[in-house]
Amino acid sequence: MTDRRFRVLMTFLFMTISSVFPAPTVANDTGRAGLSLDIEIGDAFHPYLSRAEQANIWPDTWRDSTIIVHYQPTRLVEGKTKKTTRRFQIFGSLIGVGPTLDPGIKKDVKIVKKHIELPLTASTKDGITTLHCDIPEQADPLYTISNFELFSSTKPFSRLKKLQNFGPLTDEKLRFDLFLSKTKGFKLKTGIIPLPGDYDQGGAITVRASLKNKQSGEEQALSPSNAKDMEDALGKIPDSLKSSLLPDKVPSLMAGSDYSVRNIVMPQNTPRWHGLFRPDTGGGPPKLGTRLEHRKRGSFSTLTLESLGGNDRVISGIIPVKTETWYFLDGRLVRYKGEIRYFPAEYCADGLCDKLSFHEIANRAGSISPTSWYLDFIDGRHTTTLFNEKTWTTENGKFVNPDCQSDGCRRNDAEALDQIKKSYALLEAESRSYLDLFAAKP
C-alpha cells in the first residue's frame, strides 16, 4: 500500500471513530454558562490568639477550602426526584406502648437530593480574603440550588504550640452554611472555630457572599445561617463582641492546669485594702488574711482575691464578702470583675448572730443587693463596662443607685465606680501588684 493510500485510510478511520465517540463537553463553561460564587471573609477573631498571630494563620486556614453545592427538587417526580418503596407490615409501634397489631402495606417515600463538591481558590487583599469557584450550569430542570456548605482545614491552628498547651485540638473542619439572602452586607458568624480544652466552638468571622449568573448577569446575595447583620460595612468585628468570646474560666481539674491557693495578710502598700479577714470555707468563724486563688492553663490565667469587706461596709448588721477576679491572656489583662455580696449570712457585726436566728439573718442578707463591676479589654482598649449589671457609658456621669440607702452601700458603689473609671494602665499595674504578692515567698 502506498503512503498516499495509507494516509487516506487513516483519515477515514479517525473521522469514523470521532463521529461515534464525540469529544466530552466541559462541565463548567466559565465563559458562557454556569454560576460564579464569591465568598468574602472580612474580620476573623480567635479568642486565644494575638492580632499578629491571627494575621498569619487565617490566610492559611482558607487556602484549602472546599464548597459543597446542595440541590433540591423543584417538583417531585417518581423515579427521578423521589423513590417510593412499599412493604408489608404486621406490627406497628406507639411511643410508650410498644408493638401493636397494625397489618397492611406501608409506603416509604425518599426524596432524591443531589450535591457536588468543588475546590475554592483563595486570594487576600486589604485584609479581606475572597474565596471563589465557578459552578457548572444545572441542566436538570427538576433541581435547583438550595444551599452551600463550606469546609476549611483547622490544621493551621493545631500546629500552633500555644494552642496545644491549652489542650487537645479536635480534627474537625471549620464549616458553615450559606443560604439565599435579601441583603448583600457583611454578616457576623460566631461559634465558628473548634477550640482546645473544654470549649467546643468559639471565635467569629464576618462573611459577605454572592452568587452570579454568568449568562444573565443576575446576582443573588448569600448569608451564613444564624448570622447577625453587621453595622460596619467593612466587615469588622466589634471589640465588645470580641471580649464576650474570651474564655470565662480556667478548668482546675483538667490535666495540664495549674491551681494553687495562698492566704496572706494584705500589706499597707497595696493599691487598695482588701480587708483583714477571709471567710472560712468550712463555715467557721473568719480567719486572718485574704484568700488568693491562681488558676493557669496555657497562656490564660486568673487570679481571684476574696476577703471580708470590713465593718465600714456593714448593712443591716451583715458583713459583706468582697471578691475580685483578674483575667490574663499572654500575660496581659483582658478582663476584670468584682463583687461585694452580703452572703453567706454567718458573718455578723456586733454579735448580731447571737441575737437573731439563722433564718432571720439569712432573710436580712438576701434582701441586700450586691455591688458588682465588670470590665473587658481588647489590646488594652476598654470594650464592655458594667456597673451593677448596667452598662456604664460615661466616666463623668453620676450614677444613682435607688437601692443604696446606707453608708455601707454607698462605700461599695464608690469603690466600684472608682475602679471602672481607672485607665487600663492603672488597672493592669494593680493586677501586677497582686500577682507579685501571690508569687512572693511566704
Question: What brief labels describe this structure?
Answer:
single chain, 442 residues, alpha+beta, 2 domains, 11-stranded antiparallel beta sheet, 8-stranded antiparallel beta sheet, elongated, disordered N terminus
Task: Give a written overview of the molecule.
With 442 residues, the chain is an alpha+beta fold. The protein folds into two domains: 35-78 and 110-216, no CATH class; 259-263 and 286-439, no CATH class. Helices cover 20% and strands 40% of the residues. The protein contains nine helices and 23 strands. Strands 1, 2, 5, 6, 7, 8, 9, 10, 11, 12 and 13 form an eleven-stranded antiparallel sheet that branches. Strands 14-17-18-19-20-21-22-23 form an eight-stranded antiparallel sheet. It has a two-stranded antiparallel sheet with strand order 3-4. A hairpin with a 2-residue loop joins strand 17 and strand 18 (300-308).
